[in-house]
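Problem 12. The chain below contains 156 residues. Write out its predicted structure in token notation.
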Amino acid sequence: MKVKLLISVLCLMTMSAFAAKRSDFSGPWQFSPEKSKNIGMMAQMKMIQTIEQSDSSLDVTTHTTFQGRDEDSKTHLDLTGKPATNESPMGGPSETVSKWDGGKLVTTWTSESAVAGGPKVVRIETRSVSADGKTMSVESFRGSNPAIVMVFEKKQ
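Solution.
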């Protein structure tokens, strides 16, 4: 009897782990440089990300103002695990592959090197939202460099 109970509990725990709730990133988000880390000159930037999310995709429209210039960009992430092509933040096309890790969205960005014949550049971006839904963090790693952590506040 104890063995059956133990097996039942383990099955329920496994099912709940697979059924982890995916975060909802939808809506407008205001960049908060003072809460961010390792952002360098981006601390002077004003940025709003507007996100539209469905079961199969996440679309980010970004408006930035930096040194008196306004720029708009769009990123499309496929949430089914299929690759998507996006413009990298440093310019040039990147292949992006996104997958859920619990409530976090992990996207691998793969780009050509800026040096002809150089190795591909790989950046791992992890997007998460706070339990109260008011703060979104985007943590980005490239090689052995310290992580860049961009924090956004939900706009009402």
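Discussion. Helices lie at 2-18. Students who got a different answer should revisit the alignment rule from Section 12.3.
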